[in-house]
Every structure is written in C-alpha cells, then in structure tokens.
Amino acid sequence: MKSSEFVESSEFVQPESSQSAAAVARGQEVVQKLLRSVGKAAWIAGTTFIVLGIPLLFALEKEAAYIQMENLEYEMEALLGPTSSSHQH
User: What is the reported pTM?
Assistant: First the structure.
C-alpha cells in the first residue's frame, strides 16, 4: 500500500509543479512586457527631451545672456552717463 500511496502522492505533485511552472512562465511574460513598456516610455521621454528640451534650454540661455547684457549697459550708463552706443537703441 505504501507504493500505491507514493504513486498517488506523486500524481498530485506533478500537476502542482506544472502549475507552478506555468505561473512562473506567466510571471516572466508579465515582467518582459513591463520592461518593454518601460523601455518604450523611456525612449519617448528621451527623444522628446532631445527634440524639444535642448533647443529650449539654448533659447533660454541666449535670452538670459541678452538680459544680462542689457542690464550691464544700463549700469554702465548710470555710472558713466549716456554714451554714443546707448543712443543707437
């Protein structure tokens, strides 16, 4: 009887191991899909930053330099008085 009990118990172990293998396979599939989605999102965010963000940064830096130059001209004009270059504006 012990041998039949062993056979019966091994039959129950078999489906559990195949079920757990199927669950592991589904889990791996979900992880792969998640990683693929994260990769796509990272690609979209990165290319969007390159296409839109970097030119915007350059434009803002150029504008800041222009404002700084104007402020410097106003300070010089206040200290030295009007110059010939200030009348050209």
Answer: 0.48
Please state, in angstroms and as integers, the Cα–Cα distance from residue 77 to each residue in 63, 64, 68, 84, following that order.
Answer: 21, 20, 14, 10
* Pair of tokens at residue 30: 């979900």
State how far Cα 48 lies from the chain centre.
10
- Return the structure tokens found at 56: 């915007």
Residue showing tokens 């969007």: 48
Q: Give the separation between CA 72 and CA 81, rounded to whole angstroms.
A: 13
Helix extents (H) in the chain: 2-48, 54-80
Per the document, the length of the chain is 89
**Four-CA torsion 22, 23, 28, 33, nearest 10 degrees:** 100
Report percent pLDDT > 70 for the chain: 73
